[in-house]
Amino acid sequence: MIYVVFVEPETPGNIGFLARTMKNFGLSQLVLINPCELEHETYYQSMHAREIIYNRQEYDSLPEFVKTEGIDYVVGTTGTAGGSYNIPRIAITPENLSQSLNVKGHIALLFGREGDGLTNHELEMCDVVVSIPTHESYPILNITHAAAIIFYELFKNEKKYPVEDLDEASLEEKQGLIDYVDDVLDNLDYPPHKKKNASLAFKRMVGRAFISGREAHTLKGMFRRIRDRIN
User: Which of 31, 29, 66, 57 is nearest to 171 (CA)?
Assistant: First the structure.
Protein backbone atom coordinates (compact mmCIF):
# COMPACT_ATOMS: atom_id res chain seq x y z
CA MET A 1 0.00 0.00 0.00
CA ILE A 2 1.29 3.46 -0.91
CA TYR A 3 0.44 6.40 1.35
CA VAL A 4 0.75 9.83 -0.26
CA VAL A 5 1.83 12.13 2.57
CA PHE A 6 1.59 15.92 2.31
CA VAL A 7 3.67 17.48 5.09
CA GLU A 8 2.25 20.75 6.46
CA PRO A 9 0.38 21.86 3.32
CA GLU A 10 -0.11 25.61 3.27
CA THR A 11 -2.67 26.06 0.46
CA PRO A 12 -6.11 24.39 0.62
CA GLY A 13 -6.40 24.19 -3.15
CA ASN A 14 -3.16 22.23 -3.51
CA ILE A 15 -4.58 19.48 -1.31
CA GLY A 16 -7.47 19.13 -3.77
CA PHE A 17 -5.14 19.17 -6.78
CA LEU A 18 -3.01 16.45 -5.17
CA ALA A 19 -6.06 14.25 -4.54
CA ARG A 20 -7.12 14.61 -8.18
CA THR A 21 -3.62 13.67 -9.35
CA MET A 22 -3.65 10.64 -7.06
CA LYS A 23 -6.91 9.38 -8.58
CA ASN A 24 -5.44 9.76 -12.08
CA PHE A 25 -2.95 7.05 -11.15
CA GLY A 26 -5.04 4.78 -8.94
CA LEU A 27 -3.82 6.01 -5.54
CA SER A 28 -6.27 6.58 -2.71
CA GLN A 29 -4.47 6.83 0.65
CA LEU A 30 -3.92 10.52 1.40
CA VAL A 31 -2.27 11.59 4.67
CA LEU A 32 -1.96 15.20 5.81
CA ILE A 33 0.61 16.16 8.43
CA ASN A 34 -0.38 19.23 10.47
CA PRO A 35 -2.30 20.74 7.54
CA CYS A 36 -3.86 24.13 6.99
CA GLU A 37 -7.64 24.37 7.28
CA LEU A 38 -9.44 22.59 4.46
CA GLU A 39 -11.80 24.92 2.64
CA HIS A 40 -14.34 24.80 -0.17
CA GLU A 41 -11.45 25.25 -2.62
CA THR A 42 -9.99 21.92 -1.46
CA TYR A 43 -13.08 20.00 -2.50
CA TYR A 44 -13.64 22.08 -5.63
CA GLN A 45 -10.13 21.47 -6.96
CA SER A 46 -10.31 17.74 -6.19
CA MET A 47 -13.14 17.39 -8.75
CA HIS A 48 -14.01 13.68 -9.04
CA ALA A 49 -11.52 12.69 -6.33
CA ARG A 50 -13.47 14.12 -3.41
CA GLU A 51 -13.71 10.72 -1.75
CA ILE A 52 -9.92 10.84 -1.30
CA ILE A 53 -10.34 14.07 0.66
CA TYR A 54 -13.23 12.67 2.69
CA ASN A 55 -11.22 9.54 3.55
CA ARG A 56 -7.96 11.33 4.32
CA GLN A 57 -5.99 10.76 7.50
CA GLU A 58 -4.45 13.57 9.54
CA TYR A 59 -1.56 13.42 11.98
CA ASP A 60 0.17 16.07 14.06
CA SER A 61 3.67 14.88 13.15
CA LEU A 62 5.51 12.68 10.68
CA PRO A 63 7.01 10.34 13.33
CA GLU A 64 3.51 9.77 14.77
CA PHE A 65 2.20 8.76 11.33
CA VAL A 66 5.12 6.42 10.60
CA LYS A 67 4.77 4.67 13.95
CA THR A 68 0.96 4.46 14.01
CA GLU A 69 0.58 3.12 10.46
CA GLY A 70 3.54 0.73 10.71
CA ILE A 71 5.30 2.19 7.67
CA ASP A 72 7.94 -0.15 6.23
CA TYR A 73 9.56 2.16 3.70
CA VAL A 74 9.74 5.96 3.51
CA VAL A 75 10.40 7.79 0.22
CA GLY A 76 11.18 11.50 0.45
CA THR A 77 11.04 14.05 -2.35
CA THR A 78 13.18 17.14 -2.82
CA GLY A 79 13.55 19.83 -5.45
CA THR A 80 17.10 20.54 -4.30
CA ALA A 81 19.07 17.33 -4.62
CA GLY A 82 22.44 17.39 -2.89
CA GLY A 83 25.88 16.49 -4.12
CA SER A 84 28.15 13.89 -2.62
CA TYR A 85 28.74 15.95 0.54
CA ASN A 86 25.08 16.60 1.36
CA ILE A 87 24.11 13.08 2.37
CA PRO A 88 20.49 13.77 3.42
CA ARG A 89 19.75 15.12 -0.08
CA ILE A 90 21.52 12.53 -2.23
CA ALA A 91 18.68 11.52 -4.53
CA ILE A 92 17.58 9.14 -7.27
CA THR A 93 15.22 9.87 -10.17
CA PRO A 94 11.55 8.80 -10.28
CA GLU A 95 12.47 6.29 -12.97
CA ASN A 96 15.13 4.75 -10.73
CA LEU A 97 12.54 4.46 -7.98
CA SER A 98 9.93 2.81 -10.18
CA GLN A 99 12.43 0.27 -11.50
CA SER A 100 13.44 -0.78 -8.01
CA LEU A 101 10.27 -0.45 -5.97
CA ASN A 102 9.06 -4.03 -5.82
CA VAL A 103 8.59 -4.09 -2.08
CA LYS A 104 5.65 -5.32 -0.10
CA GLY A 105 4.18 -3.65 2.95
CA HIS A 106 3.36 -0.02 3.67
CA ILE A 107 5.19 2.66 1.68
CA ALA A 108 5.02 6.38 2.47
CA LEU A 109 5.70 8.85 -0.34
CA LEU A 110 6.42 12.24 1.25
CA PHE A 111 5.83 15.64 -0.29
CA GLY A 112 6.91 18.74 1.62
CA ARG A 113 5.66 22.24 2.16
CA GLU A 114 4.91 24.34 -0.90
CA GLY A 115 7.48 26.94 0.10
CA ASP A 116 10.28 25.03 1.80
CA GLY A 117 9.78 21.35 1.02
CA LEU A 118 11.00 18.74 3.49
CA THR A 119 13.61 19.67 6.09
CA ASN A 120 16.95 17.90 6.35
CA HIS A 121 15.68 16.26 9.55
CA GLU A 122 12.63 14.89 7.74
CA LEU A 123 14.78 13.68 4.85
CA GLU A 124 17.01 11.86 7.32
CA MET A 125 13.95 9.77 8.26
CA CYS A 126 13.65 8.55 4.66
CA ASP A 127 15.02 5.31 3.25
CA VAL A 128 15.53 6.93 -0.13
CA VAL A 129 15.07 10.42 -1.62
CA VAL A 130 13.69 11.20 -5.09
CA SER A 131 14.34 14.33 -7.12
CA ILE A 132 13.13 15.29 -10.61
CA PRO A 133 15.69 16.74 -13.03
CA THR A 134 14.53 20.16 -14.25
CA HIS A 135 15.92 23.02 -16.31
CA GLU A 136 18.17 25.40 -14.39
CA SER A 137 16.13 28.43 -15.48
CA TYR A 138 13.23 27.34 -13.22
CA PRO A 139 14.19 24.23 -11.27
CA ILE A 140 11.40 24.01 -8.66
CA LEU A 141 8.20 22.15 -9.59
CA ASN A 142 4.74 22.73 -8.15
CA ILE A 143 3.92 19.85 -5.80
CA THR A 144 1.15 18.42 -7.99
CA HIS A 145 3.37 18.51 -11.09
CA ALA A 146 6.12 16.70 -9.20
CA ALA A 147 3.58 14.21 -7.83
CA ALA A 148 2.18 13.51 -11.31
CA ILE A 149 5.65 12.67 -12.66
CA ILE A 150 6.44 10.33 -9.78
CA PHE A 151 2.98 8.70 -9.81
CA TYR A 152 3.27 8.11 -13.56
CA GLU A 153 6.63 6.39 -13.22
CA LEU A 154 5.20 4.10 -10.54
CA PHE A 155 1.95 3.47 -12.41
CA LYS A 156 3.46 2.58 -15.78
CA ASN A 157 5.30 -0.37 -14.25
CA GLU A 158 2.54 -1.63 -11.98
CA LYS A 159 1.71 -4.63 -14.17
CA LYS A 160 5.24 -5.88 -13.63
CA TYR A 161 4.70 -6.19 -9.89
CA PRO A 162 5.66 -8.24 -8.10
CA VAL A 163 8.83 -8.92 -10.08
CA GLU A 164 9.43 -11.91 -7.86
CA ASP A 165 7.95 -13.28 -4.69
CA LEU A 166 10.46 -11.17 -2.76
CA ASP A 167 10.51 -11.41 1.00
CA GLU A 168 11.27 -7.72 1.49
CA ALA A 169 13.03 -6.82 4.74
CA SER A 170 10.64 -5.21 7.21
CA LEU A 171 11.26 -1.84 8.82
CA GLU A 172 12.21 -3.63 12.04
CA GLU A 173 14.70 -5.88 10.22
CA LYS A 174 16.32 -2.95 8.43
CA GLN A 175 16.50 -0.90 11.61
CA GLY A 176 18.11 -3.86 13.38
CA LEU A 177 20.76 -3.97 10.67
CA ILE A 178 21.40 -0.22 11.01
CA ASP A 179 21.66 -0.63 14.80
CA TYR A 180 24.45 -3.19 14.35
CA VAL A 181 26.30 -0.79 12.06
CA ASP A 182 25.93 1.94 14.71
CA ASP A 183 27.40 -0.44 17.30
CA VAL A 184 30.41 -1.00 15.05
CA LEU A 185 30.85 2.76 14.57
CA ASP A 186 30.68 3.28 18.35
CA ASN A 187 33.47 0.76 18.85
CA LEU A 188 35.58 2.51 16.22
CA ASP A 189 35.42 5.76 18.22
CA TYR A 190 33.97 7.71 15.32
CA PRO A 191 33.41 11.44 16.02
CA PRO A 192 29.66 12.08 16.49
CA HIS A 193 29.21 14.07 13.25
CA LYS A 194 31.06 11.45 11.20
CA LYS A 195 29.10 8.63 12.83
CA LYS A 196 25.81 10.37 11.96
CA ASN A 197 26.82 10.76 8.31
CA ALA A 198 28.14 7.19 8.06
CA SER A 199 24.95 5.78 9.62
CA LEU A 200 22.71 7.82 7.29
CA ALA A 201 24.80 6.85 4.26
CA PHE A 202 24.42 3.16 5.16
CA LYS A 203 20.66 3.58 5.70
CA ARG A 204 20.31 5.16 2.26
CA MET A 205 22.35 2.36 0.65
CA VAL A 206 20.03 -0.18 2.26
CA GLY A 207 17.04 1.80 1.01
CA ARG A 208 18.25 1.94 -2.57
CA ALA A 209 19.10 -1.76 -2.52
CA PHE A 210 15.58 -2.91 -1.43
CA ILE A 211 17.11 -5.83 0.44
CA SER A 212 15.27 -9.01 1.34
CA GLY A 213 14.67 -10.25 4.85
CA ARG A 214 17.23 -13.00 4.33
CA GLU A 215 19.85 -10.49 3.14
CA ALA A 216 19.21 -8.31 6.18
CA HIS A 217 19.61 -11.33 8.46
CA THR A 218 22.89 -12.31 6.79
CA LEU A 219 24.32 -8.79 7.00
CA LYS A 220 23.30 -8.48 10.64
CA GLY A 221 25.26 -11.64 11.37
CA MET A 222 28.31 -10.22 9.61
CA PHE A 223 28.22 -6.90 11.47
CA ARG A 224 27.59 -8.69 14.76
CA ARG A 225 30.80 -10.67 14.25
CA ILE A 226 32.69 -7.47 13.36
CA ARG A 227 31.35 -5.75 16.47
CA ASP A 228 32.26 -8.68 18.72
CA ARG A 229 35.75 -8.99 17.18
CA ILE A 230 36.65 -5.33 17.79
CA ASN A 231 35.22 -5.15 21.32
Answer: 66
